[in-house]
TrEMBL record:
Gene Ontology BP term (one): methylation
Its EC number(s): 3.1.1.61
Gene Ontology CC: cytoplasm
Catalytic reaction list: [protein]-L-glutamate 5-O-methyl ester + H2O = L-glutamyl-[protein] + methanol + H(+)
Domain of life: Bacteria
Keyword Amino-acid biosynthesis: no
Keyword tags: Chemotaxis, Hydrolase, Methyltransferase, Transferase
Domain CheB-type methylesterase: 408-605
Record organism: Thermalbibacter longus
GO MF annotation list: phosphorelay response regulator activity; protein-glutamate methylesterase activity; S-adenosylmethionine-dependent methyltransferase activity
Residue ranges crossing the lipid bilayer per the database entry: none
Protein name as it appears in the record: protein-glutamate methylesterase
Amino acid sequence: MPEELLRAVGERVFPRLGFSPTDLLWQRLARVVQNQARQAGFDAPEAYLRYLLRAGERELDRLAEALTINETYFFREPKHFDALRQLLPELARGGGPVRILSAGCATGEEAYSLAIAAHRALTPLGVEFEVLGVDIDRRALERAREGRYRRWSFREQGLHHAQGYVRQDGDYWLIRADIRQRVHFEQMNLVEQAPAGPFHIVFCRNTLMYLTPEHRKAVIARLVKLLPPGGALFIGSAETLDAPPPELERVTLAGAYLFRRREAAAPPATSPAHRRGEPLRVLLVSRSPATRVVLRQVLQAQTGLELAGEARSPAEVAERLRETGADIVLLDAVTDPALATAGRETWARATPALTLAGPASGLLRGTGVLVLPDDRAETLRGLGEELARRIRTVAARGSRPAPAGTGPLVSLRRPSWERLLLIGSSTGGPAVVTEILRRLPTGLGLAVLIVQHMPANFTRSFADRLDRLSGYTVREAATGDLLQADAVYVTPGQHNTTVAHGGRLKVELPAPGDIYVPNIDRAFLSVARAGLADRALAVVLTGMGDDGAEGMTRLAAAGAYTLAQDPREAVVAGMIEAALARGAVQKVLPADDIPSEIARWAGSGRRALVGQS
């Protein structure tokens, strides 16, 4: 297949979908072109490509539809449906039918799941509802309208949650007729338009991650306009909004993150004087993962203090204050260059050092800012009551300076790592990785390196989401990072990460021959070459291709413990099957069982576990 012809077609098709043209997407385009060429009766893909470049827009639209990734199943991410059940009675009080949108509905499993949840919550209240599913893929919508699904569409707990609303017919399960009547489907490209609103609930999950930043911003802006005040937007658990529109407020409900349209302009943060008897809420700001870990533990151990949230830079303070209404900003001086000198020896009151322009500046009125010295000294763990006393002093004095400190603090001693967990994944991986990290205990002496096939503009937000949802400190890897316990490093998109002797990381641009980027094999092989295999556990999860198989083989031969997700539950089993074919996998487990197996390995020792397997 001539690369120049494939590129010419891709450059015409990708903008229609708003897709970010990653290496994996180019590979998918090549496979789709081969399939479409056979279906259209062409002898070779080259002839089909030339035909596409001459043909009208409709042929390119058909190719674009075939490129969509229709990965879905019933009641995927159950916490979102737990939150939905709590929201629906509240939204029903506004009168009229409750309208729900499934944006990027694929073959309809999500739309019918929404209808089932709405029927259970609203029918006892006598409230009507309707669900609209929209997608660009015409063939997927035809399957959705049939309401006939095989067992695979109900994997995990889907069949349990749908009980009473489906009936078995041979190898298929059929959606109950009264539910199908409440669900309608329309072909629509969200990059170009949105359906007619309003909608009380919008589910747009695992769609935004494939879009360019510009298209993602435009789609979100359209969806926000569909929501009435109080309406809710759900995105995938592996997704995040780079800069949420000011109309949206991020909230947590039933353990799930979602966004709600504000009823009115957000009020300024409540002064501690108006909340007497309640804990002081502290917003922790530090660019250092290790500093955040230690200060998080210090704050949680003190009565009368509550960790309201965390930020990595002063630039993030305004958004976090809006979300949390924190009383105190606790700022690591090293994080803000303006404080690098002033904060070295003493605690300081430094509101002017936080440069917040426009409306954001008002958020600091009544909010104390306490600046910590940098981490040159030896430990922050001993602060305890002294930190609590200084926070209370700043809160009580409002905008007046806090007293000077009593001398330099001892610097932070970074926790050492004992074992290294390596995770490689591709298509479908973000959701699985998120769940594994969420359930993985801390305190195991684990450093974690994640290599996820993902575009450059997604890995930072992926790391941020993992940081919020897990007990681990998570960040994008950077050259020079030294592995630390209870810390997770995500390989940046369009780069590779390798591990050197002693656990020092190196991030570099891909080599010319790298088909997959970030490259799992390069990370795994570097651990073997560094002599760290006997301290490592390597896991291969869902994904297309064969990346990770060679590295897994070398690691296993060098003494590493190796696991793979059960291929029967993987979104795409290619990477797992490639590793199995090489004999590199010592144990195959469902994703739900992987966190406990990692914990057993870390606690009991690799050799004992290998003997049990």
